[in-house]
Amino acid sequence: MRAYIGRQQAVSVEDFAELALGTPIELWLGVEGESDEERAAREDAARDILADNPDLPDDLIRVAAQVIEDNPDLFDVIPFTRSARRRPARKAVA
């Protein structure tokens, strides 16, 4: 099954977020090892985007809810269960 946001195909979770936001996901979450200066610049850019688009958070939540509604199988999780059977303790023989 293929999923599209607008005319762009979303292949991964990151694609969904980037297409919904219209910006790379790294802008909002940062990247490992970024310097304080890079972080400040990234956060400044994010604040500018939010100031220009005050409805962006609501739009993103709406898109995410629609994706979840359209793809309930995204949450088909099989819980990992432990075996009720225990191994007997091994005894050393001298």
Describe the structure.
The protein is 49% helix and 6% strand. It is mainly alpha-helical. The protein has a two-stranded antiparallel ribbon. Strand 1 and strand 2 form a beta hairpin. Helix 1 packs antiparallel against helix 4.
Morphology call: flat
Give a short account of the largest sheet.
2 strands, antiparallel
Strand order of the largest sheet: 1-2
How many DSSP H or I helices?
Answer: 4
Strand content: 5-15%
End-to-end CA span: 61 Å
> Which structural class do the helices and strands define?
mainly alpha
Mean of all residue-level pLDDT scores: 79
Write down how many β-strands occur, each being a DSSP E stretch of 2 or more residues: 2
Work out the radius of gyration: 22 Å
Which consecutive residue ranges, at least 5 long each, have pLDDT under 50?
Answer: none
Order of helices and strands: EEHHHH
Fraction of helical residues:
40-55%
Oligomeric state as shown: single chain
Write the layout of secondary structure elements.
Blueprint: E1 3-5, E2 8-10, H1 13-21, H2 25-29, H3 36-52, H4 56-70
Antiparallel strand pairs: 1-2
Helix pairs in contact: 1-4
Keywords:
94 residues, two-stranded antiparallel sheet, mainly alpha, 2 strands, 4 helices, flat
